[in-house]
Amino acid sequence: MLQLHDLSVEFDEGFQLKHINWQIQQHQHWLITGANGAGKSALAAVLAGYGEILAGSTSRLPTTIGWVSFEAQAQLIQAELKKDDADILDVISLGTCVREIIFTNETDPVIAGELIQKFELEYLLERAFRKLSTGETRKVMLIKALSCHADLLILDEPFDGLDQASHTMLQNHLTHVVKHTPVVMVLNRFDEIPDFISHIAYMEDGQLRHQVNREDTQAFNELYQLLHLKTTHLQVPDSDTDNTRPALNPKEPLVKLSNICIKHTDMVLIENLNWCIQPNQHWQLSGPNGSGKTAILSLITGDHPQCYTNDIFVFGFQRGNGESIWQIKQHIGYVSTALQWEYRVGTSLANVIISGFYDSIGLYSKSTDQQKHIANQWLELLGMQGRGDQPFNKLSYGDQRLLLIARAMVKHPPLLILDEPCLGLDDINRQLVLALIEKVCAAKETSVIYVNHHAQDRIAGIDHYLALEKSADNA
Amino acid sequence: MSNNYFNTLPLREQLEQLAKCRFMHMNEFTEGVEALKGKKMVIIGCGAQGLNQGLNLRDSGLDVSYTLRQSAITEKRQSFKNASENGFTVGTYEELIPSADIVLNLTPDKQHSPVVAAVMPLMKQGACLSYSHGFNIVEEGMKVREDLTVIMVAPKCPGSEVRAEYVRGFGVPTLIAVHEDNDPQGHGLALAKAYAVGTGGHKAGVLMSSFIAEVKSDLMGEQTILCGMLQTGSLLCFDKMIEKGMDAGYASKLIQYGWETITEALKYGGVTNMLDRLSNPAKIKAFDLSEELKVIMRPLYNKHQDDIINGTFSATMMADWANDDVNLLGWRAATGETAFEKTPAGDMEISEQEYFDHGILMVAMVKAGVELAFETMTAAGIIADSAYYESLHETPLIANTIARKKLYEMNATISDTAEYGCYLYNHACLPLLADFMKGMDTDVIGRGLASDDNGVDNARLIEVNAALRDHPVEAIGATLRGHMADMKKIV
Ligand SMILES: NC(=O)c1ccc[n+]([C@@H]2O[C@H](COP(=O)([O-])OP(=O)(O)OC[C@H]3O[C@@H](n4cnc5c(N)ncnc54)[C@H](OP(=O)(O)O)[C@@H]3O)[C@@H](O)[C@H]2O)c1
After folding, report:
1. Do A342 and B61 touch (CB under 8 A)?
2. Average pLDDT over residues A244-258
3. Which of A128, A200, A346, B93 can bridge A95 by disulfide, Cβ–Cβ 3.0-4.6 Å?
4. ipTM above 0.85, yes or no
5. Superfamily, domain B213-488
6. Ligand 1 test: best mutation among B106, B160, B395, B422, most atoms within 8 Å of CB?
């Protein structure tokens, strides 16, 4: 039925929706969601015929619409105020009364009467509409929208400003309405999502980024987490105050690689590379496959056997002088696809996070109460609260990646290495991971090395770049 | 020729040495690798143990280099590549041994006598010689120069595991010992502990034992339950399924991956857990079969233990070494020609549970083998902790090697000593079980019990459950597994 085809729309404030492709079939009830400013309400307004179409087309837009939104509410109030101005100055206008606002030609008086009762608005019917409180105007809007026999109901944050009783009442009422009327709802919060919603549209930057059928529980959960990350203020959970690592000298670089050469029997992978990473710098390392990105990182982490034959200074240690790799690793958080492959132990989500305190794959030490508490904070941050006891290997691929980033961050390392953290992830999981990384970069406590193929795939907050080329020997 | 050291001891001391075994507490390792810090560690040989132990020790901050025999260096053999490509210094005995504080002998056991004879004169006064298996000292009676300290640090896992577990931040269970005849400075134990920490072993559990207890239990475990039983069981079960007209690809797959799948259950909850994975009727069936098997095989386990204790086994094997390994090589070739080995696994799907349901006889064989090996070792005076590691604990590790490439892979991974013992066991056990196997059908191997076989007698089930849980290998197993904190029971 209703269809938006490659539609671009501009609104008054210059805000644009771009290339929207969307179909609403019969018996579908959609939720539009996304972070603030993503274009949720704008998309809903397009259905109500608002905005200037720049390109693309619409078909079968509904003729009668029940629309509840801040914009619609503001319009109505605006219109009332205008009436005021237009009045003769010496007559004190009371404005239109609520009864008149509600009962218009389109209104089904029986339904409206019933709703007035349910919302307990009888005592307000004779009052001036513009004297009502926000919650009361909202109720009036709802009554109007629900009693006009609409082809489509657009409910943009309908629960906003409603008291608990009205909220419940409305939800109950809607369960009947949806039997004959399609609903498009805009909500910022997933936890208010009514059961009848069958599909979810996720908006970002004026684009319709994801469309998810609610029955696809995995996609639904991912969307939930994405929204959670995008809409909650990230506070990196506490550090473990009982297990502190030796402090670093803030005047020294975190990492200094000098004249690095990595050789294999028949080829030279890296030659004469110099790289110095100062505290609080964020780096992006890029280069084609086989250019040695991962090899260089493993020199830093101590996982490459040739770290003993190169000039490497890390976290106060000149490598090869009696330090152990655990003394190095305690300063590094590390995530890569390879790590995810290796992390195939039957352990719980909470334990995976806690293992970050010990730099181990699997947990081999008794964790403290504080560590368990911190793990729970991380789970909450990821939108996985209450799931700490679930087995890690049963998680979706994307969730595993998020958890490994939390594991890497849990000890607040001075250096966080993210080696192609989005590799193998679908779009939504990529966005989840990138959202988390941007928050970590913004937190300013950790230097990030972000590795990927594409130098153009940039992350906000990264300001230093090292691009490797494929060495001639192995081209 | 060589002189069996164990046999030179008076009985009282033999018993005392055999019974030497103590699980060490974590807090005995607070010194870390301190005793080896700044000491020159030179490893002879860069094979499975040599390379992997060396990588761990270096990553623990210790100074490690490799010495190889001249031919390995000149020909740039694999051992030379292993060491040099990993950035280690490699040199001849003459170049590296004289400055070594500790020399780690990680060459194959049957080379130990000539190797030690070659390096000993080059070792500096008061240095330390270490082994990862006590065969040379105990069975060949190697006499080491009096000023030298002799210790053993024996990881109870193949070399690849030694490295993999370290990298994960853990380690493998390790047995350490000091040769009391060679501890002139009294610091052997301190060195062995630091070495165990350097390989990560202390995180998984360290047994303080004796050269003698290590050798006699290690030999017993590897030739009976670990390799011998799995090999014999593979051949018998495969032939039975073929005889009963089952698809050869299925039979091959069920066995190749079956051992790994069913013994994985041992890691988490011992024999009890392995049997608990079966339905009640299947559990009772497996239990009854294993009881029968134990009666038939007990004399064989006793004979292996007796031959190991009194030196007959090592004498026979060394005679074969001296005879250019004629028997060993012949048996190896014959194993390669067996029907099981030559039939590739089919590409059908077999679920985890199906391996249990269709492998009741395999479960019974594992249970019988583990319990018999454990019972025989402890009866010979070996402490339960040690007997546990040498039987139940290592079974899944060996089963993994069969899953990779069948018996060939298993025999290639284990030492020549284990391989030799495995063939001895196999050749005695196959005829021993011939009659028993005549009574077997596909309900216990290949197809599983018919679904209408559901009834069980409550009293019998209670009896079986109690018997399983009461076996002494379960009590010690629960304690030792408790030390490995990560072994969360998965449901
Ligand atoms: N495998 C296990 O699961 C395991 C477990 C615990 C303990 N151990 C013990 O660890 C020790 C080593 O076993 P492994 O399995 O690591 O052996 P391996 O893989 O066969 O390696 C033996 C190494 O020694 C070298 N070598 C062989 N003959 C030599 C000779 N005559 N002189 C000098 N070097 C020689 C070989 O190199 P070249 O031939 O190139 O010279 C090779 O690098 C044994 O005592 C064994 O009992 C093994």
Report:
1. no
2. 91
3. A128
4. no
5. N-(1-d-carboxylethyl)-l-norvaline Dehydrogenase; domain 2 (1.10.1040.10)
6. B106
